[in-house]
Predict the structure.
Amino acid sequence: MTIKSENIYIVEIGLKKGLFDAFGNEVKHSIEELGINGIDSVDVYDVYMVYGDVNFSLVRRIAKELLLDPVAQTMKVYRADKNQKSSNISVEVWYKKGVTDPVAMTAIKGIRDLGIKNDIKINCGKKYEFHTSMIDRTLIELICTKVLANTLIQDYIIKGI
Amino acid sequence: MAKANIIEILNATDAELIEISKKGLLSLTLDEMKRIQKYFLSAGRNPTDLELEMIAQTWSEHCFHKTFKSRIQFTEIIDSNSPVMEEIPSLFSLIKQATEKVRKNWCISVFKDNAGIIQFDEDYCICFKVETHNHPSALEPYGGAGTGIGGVIRDVLGAGLGAKPILNTDVFCFAPLDTRHEELQEGIFHPRRLFKAVVSGVRDYGNRMGIPTANGAILFDPGYLYNILVYCGTVGIMPRWAVNKKVKPGDLVVVIGGRTGRDGIHGATFSSASLEKDIPTSVVQIGNPIVEKKVLDALMTARDEKLYSAITDCGAGGLSSAVGELAQHCGAVVHLDKVPLKYQDLKPWEIWVSESQERMVLSVPPEKFNRLKEILESENVEYACIGKFNSTGKIKIFHEKDIVGELDLKWLFQKSELPVLKALYEKRETVNIIPENINLEETLLQLLSDSNIASKEIVVRQYDHEVQGHTIIKPFGGIDGCSASDAVVLAPIYGNDRGIVVSCGINPWYGMLDPYLMAGNCIDEALRNIVACGGNPDRTAILDNFCWGKIDDPFELGKLTRCVKGCHDYAIQYKVPFISGKDSLNNYFTKVDGSVVSIPGTLLISAISVIDDVRKSITSDFKEASNLIYILGETSNELGGSRFFNVFNLEGGRCPAPHPEISLMIMRKLYRAIKNNLVMACHDCSEGGVAIAIAEMIIGSGYGAEIYLEQMPATTAEPVSLLFSESQGRFIVEVDESCVEKFEKLFKGLPCKQIGRVIPDFRLKVNDRDKTLLDVNGELLKQKWCGAISW
Amino acid sequence: MVKVIILRTGGTNCDLETEWACQVAGASTSRIHISQITTGRVKILDFDILIIPGGFSYGDDLGAGKVLANEIMLKCWEQIEKFREKQRPIIGICNGFQVLVKAKMLPFWGKHTASLVWNESGRFEDRWVNLRVEKSTSPFFNNMPEIIRFPVAHAEGKFVLKSHSLLKKIEKNQQVILRYVNPSGETQGYPYNPNGSIAGIAGVCDEKGLVIGMMPHPERALLRIHLPDWTRLKGQEEFSYGYRFFKNVIEYCS
């Protein structure tokens, strides 16, 4: 099945400013263990690719009522084919097709609880945004394969370079 | 719609047969292919792809354990004497023999079921199983370790009519965490990444299952750079009536739990092959613990309502293996189109051998099916009735209207003629050196922060080790919870003080010197850990898990054979039965230049003991100043394979040798002493020797110790040996002055000596006659030991 | 006899020991799967006390407790509201606390004002903590020593509030029931505060004190031999702090 890219939405959930990002901190630590210095900080986001029988307002509703913790998190919903402007380098990591994605299964259950019966598909991933002045693509690739993703089961996409 | 393919083998030449096996990733030998050819010649047709897959899986090393079942011609050359030849009926039979000779009437089911089963009390039994998940964890450490623990939990759920898991254990072997990145070959993950991901995998799966992970070990050695080891164990409890299962013809074949996808295709055949660079994605699996937790919740209710007559887990080989095993003595018809799928484009053979996680297969009497459905639905567990057991002696597999496979079960499970294997063992002479002019204090601190000795608290606290509320002696106790326990003690029934003690013994470094002694030492260590917490050596059962290298190398097989012989001989001498075991062979890596790197042959002994009263159990932290410190057991100059030698980069040396007769006597008396409240604290001496054992007893106590080495019962007077030798069978014991008389009387005639006292100052002071050899502040000991392993 | 409903779902895993603790403290118990409530087979209102125990409901996949919180809000809210109106205790332990907070039951009913987020260490941690019993509106910690010990075992236990003024408000309202402290009773950093909760808050209640939630596990501190250092302790009393807690809750309802 091929899906038209205008019908794929991305939900990005991140921590509110001021809250300590434990995962970002750990990723930074692991990168430093690789011997790569020069990353000031890393922000980690949960990303959900929502597609199938959906439209923008439905995805927003799902994001707001199910995926977001309104006290501690912020969210962003956008169409996958719309480029997001960002001055930072970021990496998205997604499971390859066919790999068990338990979070996605739970998300579908949560969507049904909301009373939404549409045929919706979800892929779950992570997004890492780097605050750094270093723009060496090979180094970012190295970070991807050594820290962020296992290419046997995951794909990564580098953005912002 | 997908159908089965017919594979042309009837007229195939030998070369073609080999090619078919190779191309299909079947891992079948020429002999086996010929046997298959013969079967289908008499059937007058060619096999389907599904049939070949089912045969390959059933006969795989992983499911059939060919190496352990083969006859072995063993040649042993010890101490440059002339070779001794011996024929061994099979490694497996050696292990089994030991259990038969030890003969404990509380062994309920050994080597038969998914797990070994022993009696707990009049109403309950305990089962225990330990598995390895090495190859998958090397490729995808998080998913591999998670599905490793998920798999062994299912083993326990599928033992008898199902046991409730009450404890997980885990033992990992990695290369040192400070391995340089440049040393790594392409495609090999850095040990630190493996370490973190494996721990996280076990943590996330075990914690979500609500099973305490409370015993284990983590070892570091460069020998595990290419192949890590991930052992996962589960202990379960079940009512006595649920020990036996029997499929009844007419029962429904019901699969419950996870859906079937392309996960882990060829896992069974793959797990017996070595690691190569190109691995198909499909062998990697990610688990979903909540699905398994729901299966567990539903099964416990269904079992107690007696809604099924047999059960087994879907492990390696998937449905093929699970249904095949259940139908083995009767027969079954299966409809693959009824199996719930993750996605629709699976071929019949893929459905049949897929190793998708979190599935169990039940044999359900038709009249019980409705009630079972009710339970499964209320717990949100997916299920499907996929066929029926019958008494045809055949398994017949349909996909919609097509027959996609039909095999004679007797033929399929018949023991094939296994080739006689040649094994060779040559013991190398080693020199026993004792380094001179050593700074003892520095050495002690170095040893305390050796990653193999240092505290693993940073890992252990990530596991929920007290969920279910049964954990009585936790992995960490003492002041501030920084004292490590020798074993875990559980009281698995609410309101009942009867309990179990679980521990392990593992030391590959002894194996590098002599696998036979390694076996004895691992058994001794596992038992010591049990007894040190109050366990009963005469009510202890053990499990063996062998992880070995390239097994078609006669020298590797020789080491394994010698190790198994050690297991046999020492189990008999310690009078402990093996109740379950598993082997994981061919843990090796072929480098780019073609050279082969095997792991150090590694034996894990897991031990489980049943005790009357958990309130009698004790911990290793010193309890009160002015109490007396005793040592039990004799010390010899046995520094071979020791952590001490490792610190000084020394090879060889004399490997510690167990003394089963004296050890067992000491352990029996110690068990009695603890039971009679004569012991305040007890710790076994293992890696790092007496010095490390006493330092560890100090760290969690806030007190200190003053020790007089010349008091130690020993065959050596060398301080280095007295402090760091790893002689077996030794304990450090804290005794209250008021109990001294009774205590000493109990150990009369055995090596038992007072070697010092607990002092109020937080420090370790060691004297040899009138000389002070060591005087180290407790905070420093604590800092070195607690802070060595970072996350 | 006081009747306790222990509400569970896929991934709940402290239901059995919580049930046992309630029974020891003198209540009758039912462990009920939420599917029994949403299908109307069992009614929460038939019970005196509602406990949501620890675990990983739905794997905590979309944030700890979130999916179960939604399910409760969407499918059995009416019953829950009535239950509260009738002044019957609602208790959330660990994952249950996360559920209550995310279902807008704590610290203020009907509002998203707080959350439990990832431990600052980024790791799940099981350790025993010292807890200072605060002067609160909740009657369930009466007759307790000033400092008690329970274990925590969680990954997402860092208590945060939507705004700083809310902290003053819940403190003024006496809605803080437990704080992580060091052995001498002072709030401190890691490991005494195992997750980085603001002001060391380990548990809170609503204004009336009958809806309470806490990250630590009282059901794992029922007996003396549950304490991690019981082999060092001189006393011989059978029960520990957790028993007192359950006893208080059940006596309140008797």
Summary: Chain A has one domain: 5-159. The radius of gyration of chain A is 16 Å.
